[in-house]
Amino acid sequence: MSQKPVYVKQCIGLNGLEKIILKEVRGFSAEVYLYGGQVTSWKNERGEELLFVSSKANFKPPKSIRGGIPICFPQFSNLGSLEHHGFARNKLWTLDPNPPPFPTNSSSKAFIDLILKNSEDDSKNWPHRYEFRLRIALGPTGDLMMTSRIRNTNKDGKSFTFTFAYHTYLYVTDISEVRIEGLETLDYLDNLKNRQRFTEQGDAITFESEVDKVYVSTPTKIAIIDHERKRTFEVRKDGLPDAVVWNPWDKKAKTISDLGDDEYKNMLCVQSACVEKPITLKPGQDIRRMRYNTFFLYRNFCSLISCPHLLQI
């Protein structure tokens, strides 16, 4: 008698932190730590890792985890008074026992709903009440979908404003052999040049030095092509107009304590985000269409001419 498949499994991860394993019947899997509400692993049916996590990553609160998909809220970057990339990635999320219906069409049985609410510590630097619900789903064909709902629960009549990103670290074979398609001819803010605005000139984005750019008004689909492994990631997003592209390269990597000196070669951050124009929510108001999907595709590169946050391979 065959056993029923286990789609969701709770267990203990590094340093005693609780994590959830999502698994589909074809062998696709994902790993989510309740600390940070953070996806730290995403594997295809061959067991190959698709996300990058540094060998020096800290799995010790209150340090953030370097890699996977950190949640940047209520601030992306360090433009405000909060810690770099906000506090959501440094908080312990909880499983949501009574999640509301989410606007997804996924038929996945491998999913979890997480929730994060304001704490007294948050109020010291960001005096607002909020409710952040996050669904993480692994589709039957291996796609990874993340859907966020953020609500203003202030009782004092005050609105709040925030920026946001799914800070996705993709694992690539060799950053020098990677290209991004879908962002050409678009405007971007260059964080290496005091956020000056430029227009992308190339027919695709390739890498030969440090890159830290916020592309604005981006399309809903972006392709990341790993030539050496003949793999294409396709990012699909909804409600997130910007896309952040980052790789620290060699000199910057050596200054990052939780990143190996040469690990920049195997990572690329392509982040679905809302950065240029912050979101403002009135009391009782929420935003629901912040979705991110990623897929991966293996293709014959002889015929290859040209991602809710959805990651697809």
Automatic annotation (TrEMBL):
<dbReference type="GO" id="GO:0005975">
    <property type="term" value="P:carbohydrate metabolic process"/>
</dbReference>
<dbReference type="GO" id="GO:0047938">
    <property type="term" value="F:glucose-6-phosphate 1-epimerase activity"/>
</dbReference>
<protein>
    <recommendedName>
        <fullName>glucose-6-phosphate 1-epimerase</fullName>
        <ecNumber>5.1.3.15</ecNumber>
    </recommendedName>
</protein>
<dbReference type="Pfam" id="PF01263">
    <property type="entry name" value="Aldose_epim"/>
</dbReference>
<dbReference type="GO" id="GO:0030246">
    <property type="term" value="F:carbohydrate binding"/>
</dbReference>
<dbReference type="InterPro" id="IPR025532">
    <property type="entry name" value="G6P_1-epimerase"/>
</dbReference>
<dbReference type="GO" id="GO:0005737">
    <property type="term" value="C:cytoplasm"/>
</dbReference>
<comment type="similarity">
    <text>Belongs to the glucose-6-phosphate 1-epimerase family.</text>
</comment>
<keyword id="KW-0413">Isomerase</keyword>
<dbReference type="InterPro" id="IPR011013">
    <property type="entry name" value="Gal_mutarotase_sf_dom"/>
</dbReference>
<dbReference type="InterPro" id="IPR008183">
    <property type="entry name" value="Aldose_1/G6P_1-epimerase"/>
</dbReference>
<dbReference type="InterPro" id="IPR014718">
    <property type="entry name" value="GH-type_carb-bd"/>
</dbReference>
